Amino acid sequence: MAETSQLRMPVSGMTCASCVRRVEKALAAVSGVSEAFVNLATRSATLSFDPSKTDTSEMVRAIEDAGYGVERERIEA
Ligand code: 9UX
Fold this sequence. Notes:
Layout: E1 5-12, H1 17-28, E2 33-39, E3 44-49, H2 56-65, E4 69-70
Bound molecules: dioxo(di-mu-sulfide)dimolybdenum (9UX).
């Protein structure tokens, strides 16, 4: 049975709705991520993922590779 974990991370550098879609797409492309919602108003990403398939650092890297930033110390499990 697949396990699902959730976490929320602050995303910096987003200024428009296209940014939101870019970050959501980058996160959804990570193997093990089942849901990725990005909120422009709160500048945060809410993620559901299988912890046996991916981890925080991989999801952070996906955001950074898309050209945005994450304040690692403010990631909430
Ligand atoms: Mo909007 Mo975001 O024109 O990198 S896509 S600012």
